[in-house]
Specification:
Low-confidence stretches: 1-23
Order of helices and strands: HEEEEEEEEEEEEEEEEE
Distance between the termini: 106 Å
Helix content: under 10%
Length: 199
């Protein structure tokens, strides 16, 4: 009888401890992967729990543990600024030691980066930004890099001059005028003017 009383008291104490810690008796972690998140601001939601995810994260884990056969439904409560994320395999039923089927796939928004050209009378001009290059033709009054990711630093360089001409960026980052730098905005962005003159 005494042993039964002690066991009952121990069970009650364990239950009280779990309640105090917010535990529900679950032992399953609700977690998943995050792909291509380059921007802050993403918030995931499952039930009454919100989970902020920072830029560069490769995974997430909710703090609330689940029991076997508990239902879950992970949704995107808030999109990151300058990007769009979607949830893949975000709903289901807990049925393993650690639940890891969910994947958040993100894509940073892109916008055109453009600038004006004055005095271009010949062909042969080439502008480069990273691995991307463009070659505005004689008579062009503008240059455009069409898909630049929101918020990234950029450096546009003149890699070849037009025949018989020298060009330079106004407000250039280099003494010879061959480079212009900046940071891509959250919309179509205008970069420096490129001026070409006879050599």
């Amino acid at each position: 009888m005494k042993n039964l009383y002690l066991r009952s008291m121990l069970a009650a104490a364990c239950a009280a401890t779990l309640a105090a810690c917010g535990g529900s008796g679950g032992n399953l972690y609700l977690q998943g992967q995050v792909q291509n998140l380059a921007k802050d601001g993403l918030i995931l939601q499952n039930g009454d729990e919100s989970l902020p995810i920072t830029a560069g994260a490769s995974g997430f884990t909710f703090t609330k543990l689940l029991n076997n056969d508990d239902r879950y439904d992970i949704t995107i409560k808030q999109q990151p600024k300058g990007a769009v994320c979607k949830m893949v395999n975000g709903s289901g039923k807990a049925s393993s030691y650690s639940i890891s089927p969910a994947v958040v796939v993100c894509q940073t928004n892109t916008y055109p980066l453009s600038g004006t050209i004055t005095g271009l009378t010949a062909n042969g001009l080439t502008l480069a930004m990273g691995v991307n290059s463009i070659s505005p033709l004689a008579g062009s009054t503008a240059y455009t890099f069409p898909t630049i990711a929101d918020g990234i630093p950029y450096n546009i360089s003149i890699t070849t001059y037009p025949t018989g001409q020298t060009c330079r960026f106004q407000g250039s980052a280099s003494a010879d005028g061959r480079d212009t730098v900046g940071t891509m905005g959250s919309a179509a962005t205008t970069s420096a003017t490129l001026t070409c003159t006879p050599r």
